[in-house]
Each structure stands twice: as C-alpha cells, then as structure tokens.
Amino acid sequence: MNAMQVPIIDITALEGRATLRALDCACREWGLFQVTHHGIDASVLREVLTATRQFFALPEATKRAIERSEENPWGYYDRELTKNTRDWKQVFDYGPADGGMLQPQWPTGLPSFEPAVRAYYAACERLAVRLIDALNTNLAMPPRYLRSFFGTAQTSFARLNYYPACPEPAAPEGASTPSQGFLGVNHHTDAGALTLLLQDGVPGLEVFREGRWHLVEPRADTLVVNIGDVLQVWSNDRYQAPLHRALAPSGRERYSAPFFYNPSYATDYAPLSSVVDSRNPARYRPINWGEFRALRAAGDYADHGAEVQIEHYAL
Which pathway, metabolic or otherwise, does it act in (predicted)? Predict the structure, then answer.
C-alpha cells in the first residue's frame, strides 16, 4: 500500500479551461480523483451517513425483510461476491421504480431513512450530469451528447455500504483475491459510466496504479469520483477505469455511499467517433449495456466462472 494522494480538483468552475484540463489529466493518469466544491449540501451528506448507520444497526430480521433478489435488485444484501469471492460487507441498494419488478424497498421504523436516501440519489445525479457534460467536452463530442444515453431511462443507483470490524482482514499486495482472510470489496473496475463515492472518516478505499495499491484518504469536504468501463470504451482507452478495492476494517466499522451513474439498458456503447481515426482504430466492438450489466450482476449472487469484462469485447 502507498498513501500517494490521488488528484483533488476544485470544480467550482467545472466548465473552465483549467478545470477541464485537470479533469482530463486525472482521468488519463488515475481514472479516479476527488472533487471539492461539488455543490452537494453538507446536510445531505451528513443525513445519508446518519441514515446508513441507523439502517445497518437494525435487527438482522428487519433488514432481511427487505432483502434484494435477482428479480428485484433494490434492498438489503450481505452475501455479495466480487471476483467470485465473498466480500466482507453489507449493502442497501436503491434505484427508482420501473413500473414492473424493480421496486424500492424501505425498512420499517426509520421514517427519516427514505427521504435521506432519495435526497442523496438526486444530488448525486445532478452532479453526475455536470461531470459527464465536462467529459463530453474533453472528448470533443457535440454538447450534451453523452447525457442523452441517461435521462429518465437510466439505470443509475445509490448504495449504502457497511463494513463491520473484521477479525481477519487481508490486503494482498497485487491484484488478487486473498488466500485467507477478507477484503471489504475485492479488486474490480466499475461496470458503468461514473461512480461518485461518499466516505466516512475511516480509511479503506485503495486504487491500483503502477503495480501498487494507493490509499484514497477520506476528506470531509470531498467526494471520490472514478470512471467506469462504459467511459473507458467511449474514450477508446484514453481514460482507464481504475482497479480498486475496499479493505476490511480491523477493530472499527466503516461506512460509505457510492452512486453509480449508468446509462439506459438499451444503450449500445462503442468508441466515440471523436477518438477514432486511421491511427487510432476502435479497440472495442459495440456492447449492449443491458446485456453487460445482467452478466455482471449475476456474478454478485453466485460463482459463474470468469467475470465478464470489457476485454471480452475487444477488437
């Protein structure tokens, strides 16, 4: 592990030339950065962390009453796999209803929980739109082109993470799963376009760069942002989705709240026309997000063999 600090970007003037350059550099070199002056009110962040702690302190039976399933992914779960390996965590996932099987589930006895989670989701969505517009500019596409893949049909969701104190935490040096002990979340890249992450004050997030793990130190005034596989494909590998993991905490609990900004299931994504030419041919064939997401989600519940990656669609 190395405590080398990832980029920290003030996005007060996100559309300004200097900020766009800093954003482009961070996406090229790290694929992950922290943002300050992001526009989300401190009360929204404070209340969602309070709601997170309250929810995971509920009796196990109360949480399991709203357990998520392969048919409805919104709710509580404590047996998730990453890289076909059990993570040391509990989660609560929230996404909008779709008029069918996908319906939010809410715990009983916590009246402030639903409004806190919904407010956090809405605030993160607004910020994600601003960030995707900025990346759209850096990738030289027509204004608002990338945001057109999201809108009302987007498949974004918010997650609350709880990492209980672990009696046997592990931290393999390389990009591997532990031979013994546990990671909070095993090494992976995010499947979607962008991830926004609120951390509490307990360190745990690490990003893999230049053959080493680097700790992403929590800062009270920032959110962590990382690009996902969709944006890596759109950029034709100009931006790399970073390999990252969460350590299992020893002797104390840890909480976090990621927001995954995902396009509509109907989206077919491939390298953008602005980043492809005779010297830089497309590196991926088109990928359907609905298909890709379903394959990745199936691996959350059971070992289905090798986890699907964008490399499986490489040309």
Answer: Alkene biosynthesis; ethylene biosynthesis via 2-oxoglutarate
